[in-house]
Amino acid sequence: MNSVHKPQPMTKGFFTPGVIVLLVLAVNGLGFLLGRFLFGIGSVTNLSNQYPWGIWIAIDVAAGVALAAGGFTTAALGHVMHREEYHIVVRPALLTAMLGYTFAALAVCIDLGRWYYIWHPLIMWNGTSALFEVGMCVMIYMMVLYIEFLPIVAERFIGRITLKGVFARLNKPLEALLRALDRGLSKTMFIFIIAGVVLSTLHQSSLGTLMIIAGPKVHPLWQTPILPLLFLLSAVSVGYPMVIFESMIASRSFGLKPEMDVLSRLGSFMAPLLSIYLAFKIGDMVIRESFMYLTEVNTASVMFTIEIVVGVAIPLRMFLSEVVVRSRLWLFVASCLVVFGVLLNRINTFVVAYNPPYAVKAYFPSIGEISVTVGFVSILVLLYRFYVRTFAVISIAKVTPAARAKYAIRGGRS
Amino acid sequence: MKKKTRRDFLKTSALIGTAVASSSLHPAKAGPKNILSPDRMGVLVDTTVCVGCRSCEWACKVAHGRSTQPLAEYEDRSVYQTSRRPDHESVTVVNEHRQEESNGTPVYTKVQCMHCDHPSCVSACIVGAFTKEENGSVVWDTNKCIGCRYCMVACPFQIPAFEFGEALRPDVVKCDFCFSRTQEGKLPACVEMCPVEALTYGPRTELIKVARERIRRAPEKYVHHIYGETEAGGTSWMYLASRDFAGLGLPNVGTHAMPGTSESIQHGIFAYFIPPVLLYAMLGGVMWVTRRGKESEHEELK
Ligand code: SF4
Ligand code: SF4
User: Fold this and answer.
1) Which residue, A180, A118, A405, A354, is CA-closest to B147?
2) CATH number of domain containing A258
C-alpha cells in the first residue's frame, strides 16, 4: 500500500457565515442559561412537579450520549478487532465522543437543582439506582476519552513548545513530560480502549434502565423490561451513521473529498445492525401485545410510528441497497434518518411517553429550554471546528511510503 | 518507536484482571438505609369518616414551622373547586370528590406521601438521599440531595415536589411522616389534629386488622379493599372508601413493588462485577488474537 491517510490539522479559516450564525445561537443559549442560574430552573423551563425532566435530559443527555456512541463502536472496530482500514474514522469519532460526553455532563450539571453537589455520587453511593450507575460510568468514560485524546495533543506539541521569556526554561521539562506521556500511553492505550468499550456498553444500556422504575408512568409502547437492551442496540446502530454524517459534513465544510471507501464500508454494517434492533423492537411489541396501542391515533402512536418507520425501517431498506451505500448523497440521507430515529427515540422515551397520573397540562419545552439546547449544540460544533483546525484529527489522502502507527489515535512519531 | 510485545500485553492484562477481581471480592456495601421492619407504623385513612375540614393541612404546616393562614380560614370551601396536589408549600392536601350522577355526600381524600414499603424514591435516588426508617417513615436528607429529580420520575404516586423557583438551594419536599415528632413519642401532627378520628396511627399489621374488621362490620358501607395494603408492594398509609378508589384520586398502580424490575436488571448486570469483567476479558482476547494476525502479516511483509 503506498497511498496512506495521515491525520493533520485543517487549514481553512475559522470564520464563515455559518460560524457566525452558530456564535449568535450560542450566545443566546448562554443568556438563558444565566437566567437559570440566577432565578432557578423554573424561571426558564416548563418543568413542573408533574414533568420533572424535560428536553435537557432527553436531548442533551440521553440523545447526546447515544449519538456519541461512534466513539466506542469505531474503537471496537479499529482497535479491538484491528481493522486498520477504519483507522481514519477513529480520530474524528473520538473527538465527537469526547465533546459529546463533555456536553452531556454539562447538561446534567445545569439540570441539577444543586449543581455544585455534582461530585456527591462519587462518595455517596446507591447501588440500586440506575442513575447512579449511568453517572459513574459516564464520569469514568469521560476520563478515558480524555486519555485516549491525549496522544493527539502530545503529538501536536512535541518539539513545538516555544514558551517565551520567564517561561522559556519550562520548555525542556514540558517537552520531556509530553514525550514520557506519549510513550507511556502508547504502551497502555489498549487498556483504556477496552475499558472504554466496556464502560460504554454499561451506561448506554443503563440509560434505558432509567425509565423502568417509572413503571406505568411511561407509555406501554416504550415501557418494557428490555429497554436497556433496546438502548444499547440503538446506540450501537447509530454510531457509524453518526460518523458518516459528520465526516461528510466536515469534508464539505473543509472542501475535502469524502472518504467514500471507508464510509461505504461502514454503511454496509448498517443493514445487519438495524435489523437486529428492529427485530427486538418488534418482537418486544408482539410479546407484550403493545401493538394494540397503535390502533388508536394519538401523539404516542404517531410518534412511535414515525420513530420506527422513518427512523429504522426506511434507512434499513436503504442500507440494503448497494446503490445507496455507494452513493454519496443517499448514504448521507440514510445516515441522517438513523440519527433522527435514535434522537426521536430518546425524546419519545423520556418526554413523549412520560405520562404522570395527575398531569393537568402537557409538557412542551419552553423557549429557554430550546435556546439552551440549541446553544449547546452550536458550541459543540464550534469546538469541533476549533479542534480539527488545531489538532490532527481528520485524515487527508497522501502518498507516502510507510505508515506504521499501531493505533491511529496514538501520536504518530514512529 | 518500540513495538510492544505480546508478553507486555499479557502481563498488563493479567495485572488489571487481578486488581479488578480482588476489588470485586469485597463489593462495597453501598446504599441508603432501607429497613422493612415488621413493627413499622402506618396510618389508616377512613374517607367515610373525613369531613373535609382541612385542619390536618393546618396542623402539618404548623408542625413543620411553615407560614400558614389562621385555622379559621381553612373552613373556606372554595379551594375544593380545583383538585390540588401536594407541592413544596403544602405536603398534604385534602381534595373533594363529588359524584356526578347522584347528589350523595362528597368524599374527601387526604393526599400525602404513602411511605411505601418498597419505596421507588429510595431505590432511585442517585446519592441515597432517601431512607426508609425502621418506623416506616421515608425521609429525605438535604445534605445529600443534588436536585436531579429522579425521585420524582420514579415515585408512582407523583409525590416529591421540587422548589423550581429556588436558584441556590432548591429542596425536594414531601411528607416526612413527622419523623422528629414520632421519635419523641408524639403522634403525627395531622393524626393528632383530626377532630373526627378519620386518621388512625398504629402498627401497620394492626391497622390492616382494624380495617378488615370495619369492612366486616359494615360491608354495605365500604368497597371491600384496603387501598395501600398491596398497592405498589404495600404502603404505610392505607385508605378505606365507600366507592371505587380510582375515582378518588388514588390511581391503580398495581401490586408489583415498583423498584423490583429495575433492581433485578441492575443486579443482573453488576452481579459482583462479573459480567463487566468477563466482557473486558473477552474484548482483550479478541484484541490479542486479531493483533497476532496483523503481526504475522507484518512479518511476512518484511
Ligand atoms: S409515595 Fe413516592 S415519595 Fe412516598 S415513599 Fe412512595 S415512592 Fe417515595
Ligand atoms: S432530587 Fe435529590 S432526593 Fe431526588 S433523586 Fe435526586 S438527589 Fe435524590
Assistant:
1) A118
2) 1.20.1630.10
- Per-residue model confidence (pLDDT) at position A398: 55
* B112-128 burial: b if 16+ Cβ within 10 Å, else e: bbbbbbbbbbbbbbbbb
Residues with CB under 6 A from ligand 2: B 124-127, 129-130, 140, 145-151, 172
Cell triple for residue A387?
479542534
- Answer whether residue A256 shows pLDDT above 50: yes
Q: Which residues, given as ranges, of chain B have pLDDT below 70?
A: 1-30, 100-103, 271-272, 293-302
A335-344 pLDDT per residue, tens: 999 999 999 9
What own/partner pairs with CB < 8 Å and gap ≥ 24 does A268-272 have?
A: A268/A319, A268/A325, A269/A240, A270/A237, A270/A240, A270/A241, A270/A315, A270/A316, A270/A319, A270/A334, A270/A338, A271/A316, A271/A319, A271/A320
Distance from CA of A198 to the nearest CA of B (A): 6
Residues of B in contact with A414 (CB under 8 A): 1
pLDDT at A155 over 70: yes
B5 CB within 8 Å of a chain A CB: no
Q: Could you tell me the pLDDT band of residue A276, with boundaries at 50, 70 and 90? A: very high
Report yes or no: B273 at the A interface, CB cutoff 8 Å.
Answer: no
Question: For chain B, which domains are there?
Answer: 2-25+275-301 (no CATH), 41-263 (3.30.70.20)
Domain total in chain A: 2
- The verdict on residue A186 lying in a domain is yes
How many inter-chain contacts (A to B, CB under 8 Å) are there?
211
- ipTM strictly over 0.95? no
CA dihedral A63, A65, A67, A72 (to 10 degrees): -160
Full residue range of the structural domain in which residue A35 is found? 16-45
C-alpha cell at A203: 451506561
Q: Residue range A33-51: average pLDDT?
A: 93
Same domain, A65 and A40: no
Q: What is the pTM of this model?
A: 0.88
Q: Cell match 521569556: residue?
A: A165
Using the beta-carbon criterion (under 8 Å), do B148 and A358 form an inter-chain contact? Answer: no
Domain contains A85: yes
Same domain membership, residue A108 and residue A121: yes
Both A115 and A231 in one domain: the answer is yes
For A410, which residue in chain B has the nearest alpha carbon? B1
Say if strands B161-162 and B172-173 run parallel, antiparallel, or are unpaired. Answer: antiparallel
pLDDT computed for residue B29 by the predictor: 47
A184 and A324 both lie in a single domain: yes
pLDDT tens string A72-105: 898 888 888 878 788 888 888 999 999 999 999 9
B183 close to A74: Cβ distance less than 8 angstroms: no
